Amino acid sequence: MHVSGIISAIIVGLVIGVIARLLIPGRQPIPIWLTIVIGIIAALIGTAIAASLGVATTRGIDWIELILQIVLAIIGVLLASYAYGRRRAT
């Protein structure tokens, strides 16, 4: 992976994390940096899953890959919100 690939993964992860956080109703008690990290991880895992399914490279926008990334980010933000909120409550 080249530097441009790493930078684009960070940017895509940032966008994916923010989209996931916006799609979850209510307030999430996690810092924005954690949302970004979750988005980056979800973007990388979503790309790997899409590649294993053979849908990572298509003409135009890779909708299936994008949906996988967002769903993974939503799950990650929900889990982090639960764990972070629970930790702060005790």
Describe the overall structure.
With 90 residues, this protein is an all-alpha fold. The chain has one domain. The chain is 78% helix and 0% strand. The protein has three helices and no strands. Helix 1 packs across helix 3 and helix 2 packs antiparallel against helix 3. The longest helix has 27 residues. It is elongated and about 45 Å long. The model has no long low-confidence stretch (mean pLDDT 84).
Question: How is this structure best summarized?
Answer:
78% of the residues lie in helices and 0% in strands. The protein is mainly α.
Please write the string of helix (H) and strand (E) elements. Answer: HHH
Query: What overall form do the CA principal axes indicate?
Result: elongated
Number of helices: 3
Strand residue content: under 5%
Overall number of strands: 0
Secondary structure layout plus pairing:
Layout: H1 3-23, H2 32-53, H3 63-89
Helix pairs in contact: 1-2, 1-3, 2-3
Task: List the keywords.
90 residues; 0% strand
